[in-house]
Design goal:
Blueprint (H helix, E strand, L loop, with lengths): L7 H5 L6 H9 L14 E6 L4 H11 L2 E7 L7 H6 L5 E2 L2 H8 L5 E4 L6 H9 L4 E4 L7 H14 L3 E3 L7 H11 L6 E7 L24 H5 L25 H10 L1 H7 L6 E6 L11 E7 L9 E7 L20 E6 L2 E5 L7 E5 L5 H16 L6 H11 L9 H17 L7 E4 L4 E2 L3 H4 L15
Parallel strand pairs: 1-2, 1-4, 2-3, 4-5, 5-6, 7-10
Antiparallel strand pairs: 7-11, 8-9, 8-14, 9-10, 11-12, 12-13, 14-15
Helix pairs in contact: 6-7, 7-14, 8-11, 10-14
Length: 457
Amino acid sequence: MSEPSNPAQSNRRRFLGTTTAAAATLGSAELVYGDHHKGKPLRFAQIGCGGKGSSDLDSTVSSGGKLIAMCDVDEGRAKGHFNKYSKVPRYTDYREMLAKHKDEIDAVVVSTPDHVHAVAALAAMKLGKHVYVQKPLARTYGECMALLEATKKYKVVTQMGNQGHAGSGLKLWKKMMDDGAFGEVLELHSWSNRPIWPQGMTKYPAEAPVPKGLDWDSWVGPMEKRAFGKGFLPFSWRGWWDFGAGAMGDMACHNMDPAFWTCGLTLPTSITAEASAPAGVAYPKWSVIHFHFPATKVCPKGIKMIWHDGGKRPKPPAGADPGLNMGGNGCLIVGSKMSAMGGSHAGTPRPVAVGPKFDKDAIARESARWQAEHRKLKGTDHHREWVDAAKKGDINAPGSNFMYAAPMSAALALGAVALRFPGQELKWDDQSGKFTNHDEANKWVTIDPREGYDLKV
């Protein structure tokens, strides 16, 4: 929220071991629903029907879903699907929709701005509904932990909307790592050409009349009530602290995914940010965020990951062509034997360095080798993966289920907190759910939802 919230709720939500241990706990549970949907569609409700919600709705239907009810606070943005599904009940308040249709639906798709993700998904999970939630999973660490706890408690099928996680590109990243192609992993980088919306603002937009067809109070949802301003909608909400998660929130769940997945990362031990200015009411125009992660099986010494946005890019690694074009979005794994780079949305990796000195022929040989391997791999459809799993009640089948997605999104949320204190190293303790050296930073690790909304699991 615009004022720091009490972190006590978040501190009670301790991250229960690594994702591997947590996944084992979840995996030991019996499937709740069984395959009773065989030959039948997955009945779902859609929250957010315009913007990204439009394609999420279409993809869910084409994957075997049946739309039972839909909710959008902006009649104009949702007009296309409101017209297309004119006989389907529509709402502006998802709480009313869930209350009225809870016995008619099996699942809920949440495609709202970031600040509504957690409260909407949690409301559905508490009703025993499977959930698909757009990325990032939530804005804050506390919200991510609430969804992680709910995943363990309610054992519904979950998926976060980083669709590249189901693609063949990520499979190739994983094969490279499993085959030892990188050697010792030395450093990780990820970057984006975002923001492509305004950031760096120092005050909220001037109050303006609420547009016709917009339920502004429901749009604000769990956050502090404030007046409508023309600078919030339709897409620019991403740049505001209360409502979005900035450039990193928009793209890191896509672009960091290969490094996070292949290295088995969870939550960082320390974070230091550089930025155009400290985050306040809005995110900075550019940032570079240094994450230090603890030891994993793949990275026994721990590992550093650096996020770059707003025009910032990593330099080509040792052994790469000095003129290598890093592109607008990507992921780079730097290794002692080989370094590889891929584009946005967990894009297909390609070797860019073999050894510490530039060797064009060696890079060409490795590129040919991995291109041949890639042709053997096949990705899956991210939405269909979730729909099929939900029909069977298979809580482990979706690759970006919340056991994986919640810790990754939580790590990014902690990185966002560091943007409020550029130049200061924030040390994170996983067991207590606190920064150990910065009381002020701890005020931003969760939210205190306004009356009518909650994060109670």
